[in-house]
Amino acid sequence: MTGLRYVYAVCRPFGTPLQAQLAGVAGDPPRLLHHHGLVAVVSHVPERDFAEEPLRRHLEDLDWLTGTVRAHQSVIDALTVVTTPLPLRLGTVFRDDSGVRVMIEEREESFRRTLDRLQGRVEWGVKVYADTAASDRQEPVETPAKPVSGRDYLRRRRQRVRSHEELWQQAEAFATRLHETLSGHAEDARLHAPQNPTLSGASGQNILNAAYLVPRGESEEFVEMVDRTKGELPGMRVELTGPWAAYSFAGEEQQP
C-alpha cells in the first residue's frame, strides 16, 4: 500500500502480537518498522489528507480530528498492553520508511534514554472536581410565603458567597493533600492546568488535574488508594483514568 507514513510511537522490540483487527488512522492497520534496535509503529495514510496543507486544514475540523484522535489512541492503548511505548505527537507523518529511519537515527539517544526511564511504568490521571450545585442543594432552603425584602436578599446572597468560598478552601486543601499522598506513592508526578468545563463537558470546577508515573506492579495499590478518597468530602468528586502510556513524562522526546 502506498501513502505517507504515520508514526504513533517508538518502542523497544517486543514479541507479543498486537490485537487482531486493530485499525489505525485512516483505517490502515499499524505495522512495526525495526531500525537500530528500536521499533517505530507506523501505518499508511493518504497524502490527500495528511500532507502538510490538508493536515493543517483537517486539524481545524472537529469531527475529523475526533476520529483521528480516537484511532491514534486505540493504537497507543494496544501498545501499552504489550510493551512500554513512547507516544509521538498526533499527526507525526513522514514521506516514506526512509524518513522514519532517519528520524530514529537523529533521536536515537533520547529515545533510548526516555524508554529506559519509562520501562515497565504507566501513567494514571487523577482529577478532583468541586460541585457548587451539590453544595447549594445541601444548604437549608428557606421558603418564605411572601417575596423577601432587599435586605433579606442581600443577606442570603452573602451567605451563599461565604458557603462557596468555604467549599473552594476545602476543595483546595483536599486536592493538595491528595496530590501529596499520591505523589509519595508514584515515581513522578505532573500537575496540568485545570480543565475548562465548557470544553471538557465535565460538571463542577476542576481543582486538581494531575498525572502520576507508577510501576505496573504497583498500579493496583495506587488505584485502591485513590478509590478510598472517593466520597471522603461532600461536594468533591475524584476521577481516576488509566493506565495510559506515559504521555506526561515523555519530556522533550515526545515532540517530533
UniProtKB/TrEMBL annotation:
Compartments in which it is found: Gas vesicle
Keyword Transcription regulation: no
Alphabetical keyword list: Gas vesicle
InterPro entries per UniProt: GvpL/GvpF
Keyword Phosphoprotein part of the UniProt annotation: no
Domain of life: Bacteria
Entry similarity comment: Belongs to the gas vesicle GvpF/GvpL family.
Name of this protein: GvpL/GvpF family gas vesicle protein
Source organism of the structure: Streptomyces pseudovenezuelae
